[in-house]
């Protein structure tokens, strides 16, 4: 791992979202040099599910050798940012470094993303970065160090990074566009760069999105903290760069990255927005065989079943025209999977989940299937779900079987484009957590 050099001793860092995760890791790395850290984050009282507050982060920073100033800051609130900057200048005499880390995420499609969430992502990610930079810049221009670091990706215009979560992508690219513009506007006065991870980083957000076991395919926040430290200790003429953590650290002489892995030896999830085609990368990872999550598994004997075309007549249960049914009498892997899922459903599962899921499957045993974890004792099978659907998942029938048997991680399927999700993402995550119970019986 990258050793501290003491170059940030006495420097003041204003870090948004520093109460936990990546922001806190960057703060702790700088604190080892004896830096001053302004913890600009929303969490003043313990969150019901997420760890840490600005005050617990302050205790850790001071224990690591730094000085801390915890400030309640929601980056969409201009008055809160101004107040925190004023406090920082009064206490520490100025601001040398700004890290725009605070960010909101919703990995949902255009029709499934409420405008409230769109506004939050645009306000927190793009506007929040722009606004915090604007307020800090007069002090950064006076500093000998003068640096802005945005935790945002290189701008990749491959449509695959837009099609599944257009609003989120636009909001993150807005942060990156701030780097493009401000690095030129303030060249020679303030360095402005972006940092992004090569692989998924294990944080509270990743735990929520990926579900149980996802940490084995992630790196620790330490790798971003080391990369950020490397950037922030460079001279002002190092500006306008979109840095990938692993690449930079290799250039700095780091060769063993096992220290950064949560579970050394496991394949790592690629992060969003990088140039590697996610579909090809997913196939490569599955072929590695280093983890059950990505292992291809033994090929199952597939019985080819003809799916009757119901586009011109109603189905057997009064289903609407246009619905395709997979034969219930079939003995293929999808049918068997649904039978096992149906047998595993309990009243407690239905009561705790309260979600109705429709699956649009292609390929062998393709058609419409459902899992009802909302009505009475629950059910599962082919055809239209019995009521208003909360979540629609589309994928191939072979990938469906892999996912429910534990051979394909839902996060990996989603990131690679193998799985598309429409509807309530919170309920989608609930179903993923239940997959462990189902896969034990498959």
Quick structural summary:
The protein has 15 helices and 12 strands. The chain has helices at 21-31, 54-63, 78-92, 115-140, 160-163, 166-185, 204-210, 222-232, 245-251, 278-288, 333-344, 347-353, 397-404, 410-415, 425-439, and strands spanning 12-16, 36-41, 67-72, 97-100, 147-151, 191-196, 242-244, 355-362, 367-373, 379-382, 391-396, 420-423. Helix 3 runs parallel beside helix 4 and helix 4 packs parallel to helix 6.
Characterization of this structure:
The protein has 442 residues and is α/β, with parallel strands linked by helices. Helix content is 38%, strand content 14%. It has helices at 21-31, 54-63, 78-92, 115-140, 160-163, 166-185, 204-210, 222-232, 245-251, 278-288, 333-344, 347-353, 397-404, 410-415, 425-439, and strands at residues 12-16, 36-41, 67-72, 97-100, 147-151, 191-196, 242-244, 355-362, 367-373, 379-382, 391-396, 420-423. Strands 3-2-1-4-5-6-7 form a seven-stranded parallel β-sheet, with helices on both faces. The protein has a five-stranded mixed β-sheet with strand order 10-9-8-11-12. Helix 4 links the parallel strand 4 and strand 5. Helix 1 (21-31) packs across helix 8, helix 3 (78-92) runs parallel beside helix 4 (115-140) and helix 4 (115-140) packs parallel to helix 6. It holds the Pfam family SCP2. Belongs to the short-chain dehydrogenases/reductases (SDR) family.
């Amino acid at each position: 791992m990258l050793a501290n050099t003491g170059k940030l001793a006495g420097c003041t860092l204003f870090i948004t979202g520093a109460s936990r995760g990546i922001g806190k890791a960057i703060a702790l790395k700088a604190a080892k040099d004896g830096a001053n850290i302004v913890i600009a984050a929303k969490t003043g009282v313990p969150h019901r599910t997420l760890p840490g507050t600005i005050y617990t982060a302050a205790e850790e920073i001071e224990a690591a050798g730094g000085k801390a100033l915890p400030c309640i800051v929601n980056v969409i609130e201009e008055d809160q940012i101004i107040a925190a900057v004023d406090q920082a200048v009064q206490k520490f005499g100025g601001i040398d470094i700004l890290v725009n880390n605070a960010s909101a995420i919703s990995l949902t499609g255009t029709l499934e993303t409420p405008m409230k969430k769109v506004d939050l992502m645009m306000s927190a990610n793009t506007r929040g970065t722009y606004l915090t930079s604007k307020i800090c810049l007069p002090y950064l221009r006076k500093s000998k160090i003068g640096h802005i670091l945005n935790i945002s990706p290189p701008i990749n215009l491959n449509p695959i990074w837009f099609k599944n979560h257009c609003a989120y992508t636009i909001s993150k690219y807005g942060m990156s566009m701030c780097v493009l513009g401000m690095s030129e506007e303030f060249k020679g006065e303030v360095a402005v760069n972006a940092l992004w991870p090569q692989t998924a980083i294990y944080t509270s957000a990743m735990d929520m999105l990926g579900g149980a076991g996802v940490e084995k395919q992630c790196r620790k926040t330490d790798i971003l903290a080391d990369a950020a430290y490397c950037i922030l200790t460079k001279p002002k003429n190092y500006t306008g760069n979109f840095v990938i953590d692993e690449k930079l650290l290799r250039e700095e002489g780091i060769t063993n990255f096992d220290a950064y892995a949560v579970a050394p030896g496991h394949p790592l999830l690629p992060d969003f927005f990088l140039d590697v085609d996610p579909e090809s990368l997913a196939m490569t990872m599955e072929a590695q065989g280093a983890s059950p999550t990505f292992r291809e598994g033994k090929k199952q004997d597939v019985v080819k079943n003809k799916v009757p075309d119901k586009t011109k007549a109603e189905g057997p249960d009064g289903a609407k025209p246009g619905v395709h049914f997979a034969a219930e009498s079939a003995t293929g892997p999808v049918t068997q999977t649904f039978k096992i899922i149906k047998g595993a459903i309990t009243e407690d599962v239905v009561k705790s989940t309260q979600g109705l899921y429709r699956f649009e499957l292609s390929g062998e045993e393709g058609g419409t299937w459902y899992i009802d974890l909302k009505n009475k004792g629950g059910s599962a099978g082919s055809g239209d779900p019995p009521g208003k659907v909360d979540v629609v998942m589309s994928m191939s029938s072979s990938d469906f079987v892999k996912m429910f048997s534990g051979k394909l991680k839902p996060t990996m399927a989603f990131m690679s484009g193998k799985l598309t999700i429409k509807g309530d993402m919170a309920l989608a995550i609930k179903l993923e957590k239940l997959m462990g119970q189902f896969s034990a019986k498959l």
